[in-house]
Amino acid sequence: MSRCDLHIHSRYSARSEEWLFRRLDFPDSYSDPKQLHEQLLKRGMDYVTITDHDAIAGCLKIAHLPRTFISEQVTTYFPNDPCKLHILVWGISEEQHREIEGVRDNIFELQRYLQTTQIAHAVAHPLYSINGKLEASHLEQLTLLFKHFEGINGLRDALLSDLAQTLFKQLTPEKIDELANRHNLAPTHADPWKKIFVGGSDDHGGQFAASAFT
Q1: What are the boundaries of each domain within the chain?
Q2: CATH homologous superfamily for 19-138+148-170+196-200?
Q3: Long-range contact set of residues 108-113: C-beta below 8 Å, sequence gap at least 24
Q4: Residue 18 in this model has a pLDDT that exceeds 90
Q5: What is the pTM of this model?
């Protein structure tokens, strides 16, 4: 079975989401894309991609190398809501990256675009509050909108990954109906109580690359 670290960053990632890094004006990552490519293959990955924040420049640096594909981590929001969310998208083109830029400020438009274009995607670290504004209502709507979630994140507390998997595995058709009625939002996919989990290291410095993978 093929393996790939589906969540990893390079020095081409946009400005860090971590408040301390932003305060000190540190980059999100120092990793060189070509070194990451070599490192990931040496650590047993069959395919290599990079999921920089809202950027694909790192991926383009290795796009000519074997067993690579273009990906990114997209920052998005619910309308008129400051809660910041991340969606991992994989196997995109440069044109699709530009199109994603045009819809990513609205998670509903982003989800429709990804579904219509059949781009593989998943909610990154669903229980991690990026800017301290994540609430239960956001998670409930994410449950209705998305089928795939990052169930293993190598950077965040393992407890968050375990808890996320536990919560999603407890979903039932009745619970989905309850959430849909509460938010006046129909599920976007079949069997929305059945989630699919992916894994990635979320590495930012090369030390933990391939520590988690799919």
Answers
A1: 19-138+148-170+196-200
A2: Metal-dependent hydrolases (3.20.20.140)
A3: 108/78, 108/79, 108/145, 110/74, 110/76, 111/145, 111/146, 111/188
A4: no
A5: 0.93
